[in-house]
Amino acid sequence: MLCCIRGKISGHTHHVNLIKKVKIEGSWRFAPVVYEANGRLKDKVCVSGRVEVHSEGTYYIEWREHGRRYRTSVTREDALCKARRKSVELHAIREGLIIAPRSAPKTSPRTPVGEAIDEYLHFVRLHHKLSTYLSYRFTLDSLLRSAYQKKYVEDAARQDVLNFMTFCYKRGLGKRTVYHKVVTVLQLFKRHGCVGLMQKGDWPKYVDIIRPVYEPEELQAMFDVATEEEADLLKFILGTGFRDQENRYVEYLNIDFRHHLVRVTAKPGRGFTPKNWTERTVPLPVGLIERLCKRKERKKARPQDLIFGNSKGRHDEIPYLRTSSSVDARTVRCKGRNRPCDDGIQPKAHYKRAGRNQTDGSAATRLIERDAVRVLPKFADRCREQ
Fold first, then answer.
1. Of 155, 178, 202, the domain-final residue
2. Do residue 197 and residue 256 come from a single domain?
3. Among 23, 126, 236, 308, which one is least packed by beta carbons within 10 Å?
4. Please, is 43 exposed, middle or buried when counting C-beta atoms within 10 Å of its C-beta (0-12, 13-18, 19+)?
5. Of 348, 324, 370, 336, which Cα lies nearest the Cα of 212?
6. pTM tops 0.85
7. Domain of 263?
């Protein structure tokens, strides 16, 4: 006889099933319990219409509330008693005699701030470049870990961000730097549901300064004191507008000597990916192509070799890249927008050649001024000596 405790006592339609979880053909399944005529249980269950004896497994009572199924484990000795008690309880709730017990509200797990920082840094290390990871690590692991006073990251509020900004100012960081640090911290908080923490007037305000720009005579002074290796690098940077890592990872295979082109391509074997995950092609002036041909012959380089690799042919340390000026096409401003500068490159063509969308002369000049970089002491000292 299948065990289903129905409303014989209470007369209601709700019922409680008594089932048992048993092992059938190597897998655990729920099967209805079959009890004896005297009401005792002898480990009998109904499997596909047949009564079988299964001593293994656990007894459960099963019922439904508001369309949702519930199960709870019971012992064999108390199975029938608890099933009848649950049936009476469900009937009383239906008739309004008692109030249904309220389940405790579900609370999302709270994450300690230390674990949140470690988890986010692990994600950044695997999904972003090393330079991004190092910047985030200093912001979160050194600054935020010391400035954040609460235990859980979900408790972050506006005042915590303002306290973080104050902590950074006390450490001597500039307002532009603090601005970027706050952006990183808010990214961490957003991952844990904390959004809208900053108001409009809370952000650090800084002056977008106009950086110094190289004049043609200053560039010529650098070339006069540069070695052959340094001149190759400076000419390449000026002719391509490549970024730092693009210069480090460019290979001779990327140079099309016939059509005067250089390609920025991903190099999974070297761990390099282009900025914005986009490959591009940049035209080269004839003079630079000839210089690169002579360099390849002088170095007896193979096609897969780095053009500006170190003494071991690697990209990690390029001595003359670290000690020379970080001049690129964006740092040059010639007198007159249409006056050709080094190797015949027009100022307004720098961004177009480097794969940018800016083609207007005045806009290119403003971007050149904004992104200009300083001359490193090595070249400055040489120029003074000369």
1. 202
2. no
3. 126
4. middle
5. 370
6. no
7. 216-385
